[in-house]
Design a protein that fits this description.
The structure is a homodimer of 404-residue chains.
Chain A (H helix, E strand, L loop, with lengths): L30 E2 L12 H15 L13 H15 L8 E4 L1 H13 L5 E6 L3 H8 L4 E8 L2 E2 L1 H10 L5 E4 L13 H14 L2 E5 L24 E6 L11 E4 L2 H15 L4 H13 L2 H26 L5 E2 L7 E5 L6 H13 L1 E2 L1 E2 L12 E5 L5 H20 L6
Parallel strand pairs in A: 1-12, 3-4, 3-6, 6-7, 7-8
Antiparallel strand pairs in A: 2-9, 4-5, 8-9, 10-11, 11-14, 13-14
Amino acid sequence: MLNDLLATRVNPDVPSALSGLFVNDPDPRAISFAAGSPNESLFPVAAVKEAFNTAIDTQGAHLFQYQSTQGNPDLRAKLAARIGKWGRVTTTADHVILTVGGQQAIELVAKALLNPGDEVAVEVPTYVGALAALDLYQPTYYGVGLQADGLDLDVLETTLKRHPGIKLLYTVPDFHNPTGITMSVAKRQQLVALANRYDFIILEDSPYRDLGYDQGPLPAIKSFDTEGRVIFVSSLSKILMPALRTGWLVADGDLLAAILKVRQASDLEATGVTHAAINAYLDANDLDAHVTVLKDHYREQCAAMVAALRAYFPDEATFTTPAGGFFDWVTLPESVDVDQLLRTQVMPNAHVSYVPSTNFYPARDVHNGMRLCFSGLTPDVIDAGMHRLGDQMKAAVRGVKPVF
Amino acid sequence: MLNDLLATRVNPDVPSALSGLFVNDPDPRAISFAAGSPNESLFPVAAVKEAFNTAIDTQGAHLFQYQSTQGNPDLRAKLAARIGKWGRVTTTADHVILTVGGQQAIELVAKALLNPGDEVAVEVPTYVGALAALDLYQPTYYGVGLQADGLDLDVLETTLKRHPGIKLLYTVPDFHNPTGITMSVAKRQQLVALANRYDFIILEDSPYRDLGYDQGPLPAIKSFDTEGRVIFVSSLSKILMPALRTGWLVADGDLLAAILKVRQASDLEATGVTHAAINAYLDANDLDAHVTVLKDHYREQCAAMVAALRAYFPDEATFTTPAGGFFDWVTLPESVDVDQLLRTQVMPNAHVSYVPSTNFYPARDVHNGMRLCFSGLTPDVIDAGMHRLGDQMKAAVRGVKPVF
């Protein structure tokens, strides 16, 4: 009955786009390729513990007082310098806002920009959490497909001509979630030109940019920004630790002011003690050296995943071969409904999970793809899980139920 | 130009309701009665540092992984027990959500309930940050005045009869921000009866409930809830430390599910490492003993404020005499515009600040009140600042500009 009092944005009959991510399988043999969690065995726990102590010892009680909506200025300066060095973005601490993970940054941009029905372009497939955040502000979506070098700009321009009111494009240009695809430098430049011509904002979400297995990060889309139209978002969740809940964004002018205003009203400010600890960690440790260790692990895990896809999946399946990040994307023949398979066959029989493609499409209308995340698993476990999953997919493609 | 792309909720021409709180005066003699910050000299820094170490040592790397949207279950259980003991609310950890301060809890409730134009009742004056959070969802406000024992329920019922669509009432029942007023137990019961009769939700925001100088906390409004219509919000910012950014809410049924859904989309989850540290702090320390220390200090500071109001303010001023919390509310004759006075006289000449009443009214239309916060200042400083402020107010009431 109280449901009648909910805002229409809640739509209690539709599950959260994020709820599909966390499927629990009570079987101890269960292997999850679903959640996009970093590998916690690589977390620099001792160094971060030391950093908390340093921050508290250095600043004392004042560290625990209300601080600022924008966040710790020293940490903001370090992040501005970092995206300057690795992404060629010329910016300063004054243009950085620290957020509660990259997720809050996306939500704040949506909140600052979108009236109900406003038109938004997204890559399809796209990050499920971005859809959840954008959904809160009830946009009209236009999906634009991906090519091997990122967003299909021809399709985007056709869409922009048909729908000149589009005010926001959301993109994950680096080791895209969920496909692992990276946008070429040429397309980054062209995308900014399109934004200038068609008067829209680009939300560049780049949490995986440091995790190219054999390459350094590409220049950010934001580095080509000439009119303050690009909002750059990143996070320390994937290269340091998620539970520090520290994301950040870079924006300019009116957009920066608007985001800061809605952020202050949303939660006043993020966790000052955590930001001070991260700042102390960065003073005492070489984050890039830590990232190199991560890259070595994720390269090996990705190789195990790709090898297993080749070895165990049916020939009818196609998949991406990521050069960085956490994810591989598999496409099955259109007749295969991976959503239904997960519930009725894969989980109960093979005790393996993945995220079905429906979650990554605004209309939830594509049923034959899956995101596989390899970041949290060892090569052996990846091989074992993919063997079981591959058998299921072969059976599904052949329309035959496997016997266990 | 990019301003054209902002959502109407941002309204860049209107300053944030919260921006009036933080007026900077470069003069070293400046005394601020503006910001509602707790007294940081009372923060249990050593115990909290120890708690961070305990949490990290006990849980290791897994502490820094993604955890849950609802938040640390041990801490939720402790908070559920706490509001059971002190507020007589029968609830469990399953009904608690940990939030980024009480501010996020308010914003999440607004997000879960309000479509643009939806009708909301608020106390006038009311907490400036609640207005900022509610403003994001563009409600139609109805203000209901306060009496010595809290919300004027006769006016509320008249308002409900005229506007039966009102779906939410926001109230700060304990040591109200900004007036210091506490709602009587009888009114709490009657308010729930009104909510049942007129089908609205009560958002009970109670961050100061533990800080009654000479009394224990009253039963929460939520303790009288018979239909799951009351959402209880509190925070550790005022009784522990703000920079831990830990608020919490208690809700039931459909409302709980809706809030959890919009919360997951907003920032996935709050800072796990901080929640584990708070949980470890509560295992090793007696929070109620700490609260007793706080009460002794705030009692003394409040007494200094009330004595200074009697000694230095013009007879034409009326003021509240709080029995707990951080705030006193002063009303000047209607001819006095405290907003203009602050900028043109009080700050430049007396180097004292306060928050003008406009910030606490949805229509920003009441100019002759001020919130004075005494929580961060010693009795000597309160006396000195109030002497200077009182001289300004006497001059304003007499229409004479004081000479310095």
